[in-house]
Amino acid sequence: MPRQPTLQQLEEAKAELDRLMERDGEDTSGNLDKYHGRISAAREEVARITAQLKKLGILPYTERERISAELDEAFPNAAKGVEVVWNGKRFSKRMKPRSKSRSGRTVYTWDTWWDCLGDAVEVDPEQTAAAAELERALNEKFPNARSRDTVEHDGKKYVKRYAPEQMSNSGKTVRKWRTWWEPV
């Protein structure tokens, strides 16, 4: 069974990463990838030790990490860009590459988190009905409108927006798009 990591091991891993970054910055060989593998491994080691220390309760989770963990548990199949309402606030799932291949084309690991978009708004049924009617009218009048197309209806301008609503299991293909019209 592997030993539990310590704060000293985390400091040593951070020092090694700093040393490699400094050597990479001072390198004049012209080989841009000379320390790439070692720096990537050192970054992963720091991330691994930090995650284990947080899991063991030695290091505290940040508020963002705590909320993201709770939202991931509540919405395990949420795709990138999906907005949800949780505890009276709106959140959107975000992703960015944590590690990539040297070419940058292949992503090995992803960082995911949830951004708070603000308080959830109480919806007035009359406003909802009016918005649905406007949406229907705009879709009928402009059936071929594309994303970011600006149109004029009843003297007001609107722009069509698209966002992924449902993604494939791989996360690479959009299965279903959500569309809406925003006033300009």
SSE topology sketch:
Blueprint: H1 7-26, H2 36-56, H3 63-74, E1 83-86, E2 89-100, E3 107-119, H4 125-141, E4 150-153, E5 156-167, E6 174-183
Antiparallel strand pairs: 1-2, 2-3, 4-5, 5-6
Helix pairs in contact: 1-2
Report on the architecture of this protein.
The protein is an alpha+beta fold. Helices cover 38% and strands 30% of the residues. The protein folds into 3 domains: 60 residues; 62 residues, no CATH class; 59 residues, no CATH class. It contains 4 helices and 6 strands, in the order H-H-H-E-E-E-H-E-E-E. Strand 2 and strand 3 form a beta hairpin. Helix 1 runs antiparallel to helix 2. The longest helix has 21 residues. The protein is elongated. The relative contact order is 0.08.
Features:
184 residues, alpha+beta, three-stranded antiparallel β-sheet, elongated
Largest pleated sheet: 3 strands, antiparallel
Strand order of the largest sheet: 1-2-3
By DSSP, the count of extended strands is 6
Query: Outline, from the CA principal axes?
Result: elongated
In whole angstroms, how far apart are the ends? 60 Å
Structural class: alpha+beta
Helix content: 25-40%
Task: Indicate the low-confidence ranges by residue numbers.
Answer: none
Instruction: Give the oligomer, counting copies of the same chain as homo and different chains as hetero.
Output: single chain
Number of separate helices: 4
Radius of gyration: 23 Å
Strand content: 25-35%
Q: How much is the average pLDDT? A: 84
Supply the number of structural domains: 3
| SSE ordering | HHHEEEHEEE
